[in-house]
Amino acid sequence: MSVNFTQDRDTVLEALKQHLRCQEVQFATLHFPDPELRFLRDAILEKLPTIQPEANKKLVLVITGLEYSIGMIGDAPPALQDLNYVRDSFTASVPHPMLICLPDWSLTRLARHAPDFWEWRLAVFRFEHLSTTADSVKPETLESNRIVGSLDLPEQQAQIDLLLRLLMEYDEAKPSDSYNCTIHVDILDRLGEFYSRQGETEQAENVLTLAATSIGTL
Questions:
Q1: Cβ pair 43, 83 in contact under 8 A
Q2: What are 102's strand-pairing partners?
Q3: Distance between CA 103 and CA 157 in Å, rounded?
Q4: Tell me: the pLDDT tens digits for 185-211?
Q5: Sign of dihedral through CA atoms 20, 26, 31, 37?
Q6: What are the start-end ranges of the H helices in the chain?
Q7: What is the pTM for the complete model shown?
Q8: What SS3 class is residue 50?
Q9: Residue of 27, 101, 34, 98 whose CA lies nearest to 64
Q10: Alpha carbons 184 and 186: distance in angstroms, whole number
């Protein structure tokens, strides 16, 4: 499932749970936000015993947070290398349907770097973001008065996640009248600040260079 904002993802999942045709389905969400995750199958098998099965319901595993280990740039991350390698063993070791929720950019990297696993999919469902989503998350990022250094690492990663989603939305809006270059630059500046704080020098330089280029078009 391709959905770019966490709020929208949660809205879609809640709608699925309430849908009349899903009343005999048990959706169990397994969240894996660890950027160092290497073996998704093993992580799923570790959590499976904690799920309490509901009588007369088909169990469907909802996988979230995988975008953190997939990353944004570079070669295939370890998580995708392993996912591609162990694809055939999933049906035996994890005998339940899986609904993997990812933003567009992560879905693209999954298809590119784990092609064998990608071919195993039955369908891809893409959801447009709600019109209010970008407006609701912007105060949490661009208009926040909190200093980057005052945030702990999980809070910083959450802000980066929101900024990346906002960046994608504004990149897609470029050809239209809704594109706002000033906001685009603000997103890039804030993202560069977070990357710099985390020691991700190359990524910080990349986004700040994009910001400088965008300023030239103002």
A1: no
A2: 2
A3: 15
A4: 888 888 888 888 777 787 788 878 877
A5: negative
A6: 6-18, 40-47, 67-70, 78-85, 87-93, 104-113, 115-119, 133-141, 153-172, 181-197, 201-215
A7: 0.66
A8: helix
A9: 101
A10: 5
